[in-house]
Give the backbone structure.
Amino acid sequence: MHIPGELGCVDIELTGRGTTWVRIGGHGTRPVVLLHGWTATADLNWGTSYPALAARYHVIAPDLRGHGRGLRTRQPFDLETVAADVAALLDLLAPGPVLVAGYSMGGAVAQLLWRERPDLVDGLVLCATAATFNGTSRERTLFGVLNGLSVVAPAFPARVRSTAALRIMAGRTGRSVGVLGRSDLARHDWVQVARAGRSLGRHDARPWIGRIDRPTAVVATIRDEVVPPHRQLDLAGRIHGATVHPVAGGHSVVLNGPERFVPQLLAALASVEQRSGPRRGLAPVAR
């Protein structure tokens, strides 16, 4: 995977939480935070979008806890804690609110970041995501399996955990391990990834999502086989003034169809940016 030269990477210590890994840089001054999906990493999820984003924005793309090179912890996993991790990162890096783009699970984290720390959010771009992820029999079965795995997985060797998790992921997304990249997946803490899936299955923002008061855009993957398109459109309908930017592709279009996904991502960010506050720069970060 080609990573533009202007995007470096840095390990950042979050007080009381641990060390996390962040892809950071770009030619623009307006910061945009990229939150990846479940079982992915920043580079796997956003790598095909980096060149276009780095040309226009200052990119901050962390690996979320348990994923890739993200935070390692024995604490129970929940999406609220991940949102707090992102908030702690932004408290270090950004002097004011930023644009936040979240894909799938990252979209749920973005929603929670707004709920818990609205002072950090200038606008939201919610991609291939929903207000809830547990509405079909297939989803209930998957999250039921993950609930069990999250309890028993620590008793099994790491190799066994990884093999089981990869099979579940492939069944959920239809993506091959080769496409996703074995090196990034090998870094996952699969116990935490299973717990992340369990937490995703419990996420339900419908009681409060309508209170979002920041400019929002929804990038809807209209052939999505993982997050039903009608649920993505329902999310947009619940947020006042949200714009919809359809992409003719499935859940993996961010990987296998960047020529379709990236233009809509840029359009969504531009829509949010036009409706949000003035540009803000970033604090310098030691590398």
Observations:
- DSSP finds twelve helices and eight strands in the chain.
- The beta strands are 7-14, 18-25, 31-35, 58-62, 98-103, 121-127, 216-221, 243-247.
- The CA atoms of residues 154 and 191 lie 7 Å apart.
- The radius of gyration is 17 Å.
